[in-house]
Amino acid sequence: MNKDSKRMSSPDNTRSNRRHFGNVLLVAILAVFILLGVRFVYIAVGKHVQHVSLSKQAQALYTEQQTIHAKRGTIYDADGNPIAMDTNTYTVYAVLNKHQVSTTGKPLYVTDKDKVAKVLSKTLNMSSSEILKILNPSNKNTFQVEFGSAGKDLSVATKQAIQKANLNGIAFTTQSARLYPNGIFASHMIGYAQPTTLANGASSLIGKMGIEQQLNRQLSGENGVKQIKHDSLGYTLPNSQRNKRSVKNGDNVYTTLNPDLQNLLENQMQILYSKLQPKNMVAMMVDTKTGKILAATQRPTFNASTMQGLGDQWNDLLVSDPYEPGSTMKSMSLAASIDSGNFKGSDTYQSGRYKIGNAVVPDWNPAGWGTITYSKGFDLSSNVAMAHLEQQMGANTWKKYIQNFGFLKSTNSGLPNEAHGAMQFTQPIEQANTAFGQGITVTPMQLMQAYTAVANNGKMLKPYYINKIVDPNTGKVVYRGKRQVVGNPISAETAKKVRQHMTDYVYKSYGMGKDFKIAGYKVAAKTGTAQVVGDNGQYMDGMDSTLNSVMGMVPAKNPRYLMYVTVNQPKKVPDKLITQWENDVFSPVMTEALAMDKDTALPGKATSTKVPKLVGTNVDDAKQQVSDLSLTPVVIGDGSKVTAQSPSEGKKTLTNQRIFLRAGDNLTMADMKGWSMGDVLEFAKLTGLSVQTSGSGYVTSQSLPAGRTIQEGTGVTVKFK
């Protein structure tokens, strides 16, 4: 019985254990559900998991963030014409995948390779056979192909020419680029900007030289950010776009460069550079009353639109490449001698050779001119005279004036890589050498600044090239250039005496500057011929081993314009003297500047006139007004009322210049033959033409014939000579 009773209790125990396990399992499941419920409530209320915001994650999943690219600021000349501006370039590609069709079934791939090759060969620098080879790749699964460097950086005109052929499968990608409509126009001073890949992978236009580099931050502006919300299917939700950060376009920069003078200077410099084939050349003009740089260039230079020639000369020679100036330094030593009370022009000395210690200072004419006065010595550009003057005033006094004239330190022009210059000044012979421009190095910017003290009655002005900087977002002027006196190295009386000696240098029968006379004006000038140091550290011999220069100011008694021209190591000097060749740059540009100013223009010569308000007037009446002012009207469009004009109201322009009048929207191409670069740019500004230029001087040909219908964005190539 006992055994049976034990056997009977076993099933009871099993059922009891099962119930117990079931209860435990139920409690465990309930606990898990309770924990999950609490967790769910926590997440639902707090919307955070492991410090991550679920709401923000969900929002990010359906929110697209787009960058709004800032427009790079435009650089203008003194008349408000663009020198550097934003544009687009294009890369052409061909789709080969035959599955690419539009919603209407139209092929979006190349269907006629022979036609594509024929059309592209006319616009790209490639042959039809080269293009066909690319269109028939060995890999039959190739989706699309490009055409190498020939298919990149295409202008809008080239893109439009390709699009006119209506080629299936030909498409374009767009890249931001910088347009320099003038081509060669103070290229090293303006510089250039190129698309550059940044650390974050984005591409941006970055200044690489000149103003583009100097003011890169201001020109670049600040990109904006835009948010767009989508639903779960990817469709944009209505009214969901908002700016997270507003875009700030780059500041616009207005330079002091006068377009008429700059274009003329470029033209004359190119002619001289072609004839003499020097190592390099520099030219610069400054308004002596304000310090404004009106024109500046160098050779070799480059075309900022095509970058052609950039590899020939990277440095901005105005500020970054010091050199021994030679005899143009003699005006400084003469000024120091006069100002320190040591100069006695009627005293005499023995010219030809002057021994200082164990060294000898020679005149450029080793035989000399006998015993002459110091005044005549300056007119003959005597080294010996200057060495005597340095010895008379003493090295310490002369060094003080060198420093007061701003040499051996930066002018703080703002242009990148500005040099300070250097000087050898330990031994007596070295101290004497600096008085005639050897053993001391300067930059053109330093020398021009020093000469403003002579031109401006002792007040030394800082040359500047930025007239103003304007924030396009607010219209406010954020910077304005101004006349700045940076020193007073000599007295007004000394400056007048130096100018008189520089005038004698041009007009005395024996003066060395007689080639720089300008009819109707008195010119004060000083030339220089400096020996160039070779690789061995020794001075080289021969005309092709000299740096030749002229510094001149006009009118001599009360100078308005100061101009400097250098020709370094010319390979050829055909037909006439080097000074006569230099005058082919100096005289035309100086004469043009004088004629443009009513205070310096000669009676009966070309003078400037103020452009009247013509917008809103009848076309015939506007033409009559323009003609009455001895200006030439050019009407654009077939409307009856003037809707826009260039130059704008109040601008000054030379008589006999063109005034452009827009009337209506039916625009046709003008006959530009004989136009200046400035005329072409004025026309383009009113019509929206996209201009590509080559050469300098005046228009000889244009890619679009006169009378052709044009619209904004139409491309035209204009050649100058």
UniProtKB/TrEMBL annotation:
<dbReference type="InterPro" id="IPR001460">
    <property type="entry name" value="PCN-bd_Tpept"/>
</dbReference>
<feature type="domain" description="PASTA">
    <location>
        <begin position="666"/>
        <end position="721"/>
    </location>
</feature>
<dbReference type="InterPro" id="IPR050515">
    <property type="entry name" value="Beta-lactam/transpept"/>
</dbReference>
<dbReference type="Pfam" id="PF03717">
    <property type="entry name" value="PBP_dimer"/>
</dbReference>
<keyword id="KW-0812">Transmembrane</keyword>
<feature type="transmembrane region" description="Helical">
    <location>
        <begin position="21"/>
        <end position="45"/>
    </location>
</feature>
<feature type="domain" description="PASTA">
    <location>
        <begin position="605"/>
        <end position="665"/>
    </location>
</feature>
<dbReference type="InterPro" id="IPR005543">
    <property type="entry name" value="PASTA_dom"/>
</dbReference>
<dbReference type="InterPro" id="IPR012338">
    <property type="entry name" value="Beta-lactam/transpept-like"/>
</dbReference>
<keyword id="KW-0472">Membrane</keyword>
<dbReference type="InterPro" id="IPR036138">
    <property type="entry name" value="PBP_dimer_sf"/>
</dbReference>
<keyword id="KW-1133">Transmembrane helix</keyword>
<protein>
    <submittedName>
        <fullName>Penicillin-binding protein</fullName>
    </submittedName>
</protein>
<comment type="similarity">
    <text>Belongs to the transpeptidase family.</text>
</comment>
<dbReference type="Pfam" id="PF00905">
    <property type="entry name" value="Transpeptidase"/>
</dbReference>
<dbReference type="InterPro" id="IPR005311">
    <property type="entry name" value="PBP_dimer"/>
</dbReference>
<dbReference type="Pfam" id="PF03793">
    <property type="entry name" value="PASTA"/>
</dbReference>
